[in-house]
Amino acid sequence: VTVVTVPTGSTVTIDDRAIEGTTPLVTTLPSGWHTIEVRFPSGDRSKGSFQTRYGRALVVRAFAESSGAGE
Question: DSSP states of 35-61 as a string?
Fold first, then answer.
């Protein structure tokens, strides 16, 4: 799983486990449903869930509300 955020430099927790480093980052997860929380440098947070499948690459994207992305 690749986690990409705008802005970069965010911390990530997946299934209540902190992932080492900051975004963008890559981690390996077992197949199934997972929960994610992203903490942006601004202090904003984003939460969600996603499903992984064996042998398939997945990119999870998160945007801070204050980033101005999509405007």
Answer: EEEEE-TTS-EEEEEEEE-TT---EEE
Gyration radius of the chain's alpha carbons: 12
Verdict on whether the full-model pTM lies above 0.70: yes
All residues at 6 or more sequence positions from 9 whose CB lies less than 8 Å from its CB, including other chains: 22, 23, 41
Q: What is the pLDDT of residues 1-53, one digit of tens each?
A: 999 999 999 999 999 999 999 999 999 999 999 999 999 999 999 999 999 99
Report the distance separating Cα 8 and Cα 42, nearest Å.
11
